[in-house]
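Final report, section 2: Outcomes. Of the targets proposed, Helix-turn-helix domain-containing protein is the one most frequently requested by collaborating groups, and we therefore present its record in full.
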Amino acid sequence: MSNKTIQMSRMWKYFIEATVEIIQEDGIEQVTIRKVADRAGYNSATIYNYFGEVSHLIFFASMKLLQDYVEDVSNYIKNGQTPLEKYWLSWECFCKHSFKQPSIFHAVFIMNLGDHPEKLIEDYYEMYPAELINVPDELKPILFERRITMRGKSLLQQAAQQKQIAEDHIESLNDMTILVWQGMLTNILNNRLDYDLVTAEKKTLDYIHQLVEMAKVR
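The predicted structure is given below as tokens.
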């Protein structure tokens, strides 16, 4: 690794860690370029040498704050005997963590990041490769996929191959489960529902469970 690359990685991490601290102390909505620069000990202009906009800083910091989920989903998946069980368990884990940290999951999976958001995930794991060491191979494609519409599709395709669901149900089941989660999380963040986060998580899982049951081959 060249000295320039090492320096770039070091600066990149300074700003990410400063953003993480602001999120943890003040909340994600309080992140600004100026606050991050002040926390890291640099001027605002320096940040733009490494990040295109503040949403990218928030995205990378939020990825850092997803580590409990990444570790937990590996354990959840191990308990599944079939692709459909793994699909359900992955949603159970995803809902458990996303409704505990709705703003963080919104930043990673829903927030507008401009063009090529998948490249941002590649950049993140390039800077923090150690975070992938204990991740099972079957989960790595999911972790590199920012588009939530694609994250569970491989498990549903495997389920169809094993005749657990009909092949023509893959798209509809995948789309409906995602829309249920997105709708609930977005409404909670926008104060459009009276549910607390525990109730929102339970209702979301209930709806997803119903969709999975309806899609099963009888």
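The chain has two domains: 3-62, 67-215.
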